[in-house]
């Protein structure tokens, strides 16, 4: 058994995923009804993300179950001790990563969320899962909250916040990524700039697309 597959984390995640699938959030329904091109424009925006995600503050918008398991597996296989997450939401992906840290023998997960109500829910969920002691939840814009107070080296970075900021966040944290560090970007196609940079032959990364619109990259050097 692992922390991920045993109580209290496993039943907690099952409940959170079930709630995300079943709870109707009017703002999310309205957003989903927008034309595809308009949804893509909003999700890719570097200027409208605060307004968009504030409207969706009651929506979990989680990673898929498969992606959550992948996050745990990658963090375990990398023997990660320091993880940074951009975009906490209700803490579903955070739970997967913190479970990996617990099974790796401990460490630190720094995660950032600009919506206070989501940060509170994430804290409650991490406390319920017995993992809050491993997690530093920072409230505010990631381009500010991740600018200071970070460990010297980062083993794994998850990008799952405002899509248009993926490249900006990566550039901010890049000096601290250790050689061989993993970078996972969910819904990466909404940030073409990011995808182009991590796939560039001379960009310093080896990168490949995975199912569920996940981009997995390794920092070279």
Automatic annotation (TrEMBL):
Superkingdom of this protein's organism: Bacteria
Protein's name in the database: O-methyltransferase
Xref: PANTHER family: PUTATIVE (AFU_ORTHOLOGUE AFUA_6G01830)-RELATED (PTHR43167:SF1)
Keywords from the UniProt entry: Methyltransferase, S-adenosyl-L-methionine, Transferase
UniProt entry tagged with the keyword rRNA-binding: no
GO molecular function: O-methyltransferase activity
The species this protein was found in: Pseudoduganella rivuli
GO biological process: methylation
């Amino acid at each position: 058994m692992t922390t991920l597959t045993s109580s209290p984390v496993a039943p907690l995640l099952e409940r959170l995923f079930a709630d995300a699938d079943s709870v109707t959030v009017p703002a999310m329904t309205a957003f989903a009804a927008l034309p595809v091109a308009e949804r893509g424009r909003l999700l890719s925006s570097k200027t409208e993300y605060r307004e968009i995600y504030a409207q969706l503050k009651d929506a979990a918008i989680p990673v898929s179950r498969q992606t959550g398991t992948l996050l745990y597996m990658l963090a375990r296989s990398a023997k990660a001790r320091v993880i940074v997450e951009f975009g906490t939401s209700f803490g579903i992906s955070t739970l997967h990563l913190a479970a990996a840290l617990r099974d790796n023998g401990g460490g630190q997960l720094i995660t950032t969320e600009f919506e206070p109500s989501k940060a509170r829910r994430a804290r409650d969920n991490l406390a319920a899962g017995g993992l809050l002691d491993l997690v530093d939840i920072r409230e505010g814009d990631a381009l500010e909250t991740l600018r200071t107070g970070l460990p010297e080296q980062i083993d794994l970075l998850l990008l799952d916040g405002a899509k248009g900021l993926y490249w900006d966040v990566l550039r901010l944290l890049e000096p601290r990524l250790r050689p061989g560090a993993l970078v996972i970007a969910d819904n990466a196609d909404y940030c073409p700039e990011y995808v182009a940079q991590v796939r560039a032959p001379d960009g310093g990364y080896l990168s490949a697309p995975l199912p569920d619109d996940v981009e997995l990259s390794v920092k070279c050097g």
